[in-house]
Amino acid sequence: MDRWFLIAATLLAAAGGIWGMISVHRGKRSPWTLAWMFAVLLCQIGFLAVRGEMRSACPLMDRGEILAFLAWSLTLFYLLVGPAYRISLLGVFTAPVVAIFQLAALIPGTLTANPTKLAQGNPWHETHSAMSVLAYGALALAAVAGVMFLVLDRQLKEQHLKSGLFRNLPPVRELLISLERLLWLGTALLSVGIVAGFLMPRTAAAWGHFIAAIAVWAAYALLLAIKQVRGMTGRRLSLSAVVLFLLSLAVFAFV
Amino acid sequence: MELLCLGLNHRTAPVEVRERFAVGAPLLGKAANELVELAEAAEGVVVSTCNRTEFYLVAENAREAFGKIELRLAKKIQVDSSVATHFYRKEKTAAAQHLCRVVSGLDSMMLGETEIFGQVKQAYQAALEAGSTGAVLNRVFQRAFGIGKKVRTDTSIQEGSTSVGNVAVDLAEKIFGHLKNSEVMILGAGEMSRTTAQSLVSRGAKSIFVANRSFDRAQELATEMGGTALRFDDWQSVLQRVDVVISSTGAPHAIVHRADVEKARRARKYRPLFFIDIAVPRDIDPAVGEIEEVYLYDIDTLEQLAEEARTRRQLQIEQCERIIDLELEKLNLPGT
Fold first, then answer.
1. B23 and B106 share a domain?
2. CA-based nearest residue in chain B for residue A232
3. Do residues A49 and A19 both lie within one domain?
4. Do B175 and A156 touch (CB under 8 A)?
5. What is the predicted ipTM?
6. CB A170 to CB B308 under 8 A?
7. Do residues A138 and A185 make contact, with C-beta atoms less than 8 angstroms apart?
């Protein structure tokens, strides 16, 4: 049952992404992106509920669950940010990333087939996992906004202004504001995750993961500090958000 | 009963003739009633904009109505009867088609412009309130508005800006979104920069700085636009706070160099900066455009974008007219 929810969420995200791209290519913005992504979120919640029931805990115990949780978090932040900033095109860029994360979770062996029930969970451990993955959702969306900025910046610089994509991309300043706010939100959530990580009982094997998480937090904190104090061009901020997010995925190698 | 339209526009009459027939917006209702009396018609609407004045009527006999109105109008406005050569006359379906073309912006000087839709709506509303419309004109106008909306939705007749000023403003909005938080600096108080800056102000630009070799002229333009005048040598000090720079001086060489902008970058915290260079020879060194956060557009690029939009609109005319014909056929309007 859990897999079917995830398969449905993946198909919906892929279809929503493709539909959105076709609309943008035709020079129109699909009014359905939000609805597609909401349906994706419902299927993701179904998956997480079933897995949570199986685990009797927050379903963040194997890589498949982490990827699915990350996809849920990304979808959730899109639904919170996209309509608020009227950046519906963010959904068109988010949907493929969600589909990729979920496809990776569906690769045989990634998701434990018969998850064991946890006899006794640790609240700090669960807070650490949930906050960290939520933070990754916000940081992933910041990377998506970064990609959108880089595309728009290139089109403006090279004066290629005829495409449907150009017409539908949100303004430069709005993209940069959303990107920066998402970075702040992601870093704040990551801070809570790391504090919880300090307080949870750790095995010796968990140290690698913990150090990697601190390195990721420090990198984002440094990026925000530079942006705040010295300032930074939109291109550098966007590139940094994309590269840092890709590098930060390495943290999961230590899970 | 027959629907008819008598009118003159920018293509058929020079401005000195058009202005004689122009009717101010507050007088449209009264004019519609007078029109009905003059033509001894059943219904009437007067549409009047800076580029056209048109009389839509419903009468028993179109030919008789045209004769009466031309003669009586010429007398009332005290113009020579030769003015009739400037009028076009449309009857029945042709009149309905013409109204749909007008509402859709196909008959406008700037093809596809949207303002005309509101102007015709205002004229109809005034006539409706004055009681000069009836069953025929009510149906014809309401249907024409529906068709006008369909033409604009189903085609790209209104897409893209067709003037240099509007292209520049659209680009500014693509960079900064709402312009209400944007500050603008004008270098050189020429006509082109004034028009472009006015477009930016009309879309909400927060403040304007004007720098000009002649300080008096800078003050004059700044006062006109509610901005601040600067001595020409002071423009660099303002660069760190503005978002858009419009340059149109008569200088024979570049006046904004890469080094000038580099100096202001740190103080600007590397925020996006949009340069619009509408001067010939160019005022802004092309190397300025190589700076990461700078978007530089010169007059050729802006003109090319405007020209492309005009061409795209021209290519849409046939499709728009097909929609109008199909819709009118379906509706079987009274008086046509």
1. yes
2. B270
3. yes
4. yes
5. 0.82
6. no
7. yes
Q: What is the pTM for the complete model shown? A: 0.77
Q: Could you read off the pLDDT of B304-328 as tens digits, one per residue?
A: 988 888 888 888 898 999 999 999 8
* Domain range for A144: 123-255
From the list B174, B292, B308, the residue facing A235 with the nearest CB is B292
**Alpha carbons B42 and A119: distance in angstroms, whole number:** 89
Closest Cα of chain A to B156: distance in Å?
Answer: 10
CATH number at residue B197: 3.40.50.720
Range of the domain at B199: 164-305
Statement to judge: residues B125 and B249 lie in one domain: no
My answer on whether A38 and A92 are in the same domain is yes
- pLDDT tens digits along A200-243: 877 776 777 788 889 999 999 999 999 999 999 999 999 999 99
Please list the active-site residues of B.
Answer: 50
Of A83, A112, A141, the one marking the end of a domain is: A112
Partner residue opposite A174 with nearest CB, options B177, B295, B305: B177
Domain boundary among the residues B135, B154, B173 is at B154
The total domain count for chain B is: 2
Residues of B with a Cβ under 8 Å from any A Cβ are 156, 171, 173-177, 266, 268-272, 289, 292-293, 295, 297, 301, 305, 308
The CA distance from A17 to A44, in Å, is 16
With beta carbons less than 8 A apart as the criterion, state whether B105 and B113 touch.
yes
Sheet arrangement for strand B273-277 = B228-231, B207-212, B183-187, B244-247, B273-277, B294-298
